[in-house]
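Structure ticket #2291
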Amino acid sequence: MNGAAIQTRNRKSVRTTRAVGTALKIIFLTVMVVFTLYPIIYTVLGSLKSNAELTSGGSFFPKEWLFENYKTAFIQADFKTYTKNSVITSGITTILATVTCAMAGFILARKQFVGKKLWLSLYMAMMFVSLGSVTLYPIYELLRSVGLHKSIWGLTFALCGGQASNVLLVMGFTKGIPRELDEAATIDGCTIYGIFFKVVLPLIKPILAVVALFAFRNSWNDYVTTLIMTITNPKLQTLTVAVVQLKYSVNAAAEWHIMLAGASIAIIPILIVYALANKQFIAGLTAGAVKG
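Resolution: structure written out below.
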């Protein structure tokens, strides 16, 4: 009886521990979801309020649902032009960032060369040290010296920087690919380019999807770099910059409800891209974790 009682208590203790653990997980995930979704929900609901109601901090839901705020934001921001700029800039940046990260990650994972440890140390340092606005002026001066400061190419080159974390993701993923494949390709007559394009590149597509999504998100949402790089050519401004400018009307009065309406429209493309690339994103992170 004593042994059976002890086993019964142990089973109850295990079930209680599991129940508490499950409850804590649910609470933690619920809090994370609330903190993640609240800004989006607040933005959407705020975009449907009047400016007076929004700034007065009234009820959470609009007293009157003003959908015409979206029409006003669309017209004032010239969304057609700025959306085109954002799509072009983000598209080019995504392609360049993905290609350069794939090549850099492959070389760092597969080749030995003078200064490799130094480069890796610098990449690691850049993941934890954010220079931020300090680098904007040197970058702008560099682009101006080569005549790209008024070109969309200059903006895309500036946005392609800061890819250290993505390079390390590709490097870690590439290290999980057996080197025997490289050796077999070399025996078959492949050069380093053949090994990269024919052997390694098809195998690292999952992590490249993650890199592409990160690059697109950063480029689409960037404000400070885009504002600085387009200051001499406002026609190249992207949707994010245009949305912030919606805060002020022609009378120089802050119109937060119009800006929130523009922000609600601006986040739609990134949500669509994530919805379409969700499976590849999860697969890439999962595969990268397993290989790492």
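Closing remark: The radius of gyration is 25 Å.
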